[in-house]
Amino acid sequence: MDIESIRDYCLEKNAVTEGLPFGNDVLVFKVAGKMFLLASLDEQPLWMNLKCDPEKAIDLRERYDSIRPGYHMSKIHWNTVEVNGELQPELIQELIDNSYDLVVAKLTKKTKEEFFL
User: Fold this and answer.
1) What's the structural domain count of the chain?
2) Which residues of the chain register pLDDT less than 50?
């Protein structure tokens, strides 16, 4: 996967916006105003931060060299995923879906009603 396919995949999701709040080198995707993916635009290979369940995060880090504790994020709740060919596109999409779903689950009832009904 490359940044364009990741971007397209994220923007297909409900209530997603993109922006560059930290400068032109970090693309941020939010659902209902809450971050679920940050991607470095200047790094090769591409890397991105994704929210993850703490227990699953540890398991993923042990199984894949391309998944590490979140760079400049909570090491418990975020992983940095390097898109270098080790991970299959389906797994990357699954990790994106998981991050999105974790953020949506934490939204208030009012916010969920506003964006998802």
Assistant:
1) 1
2) none
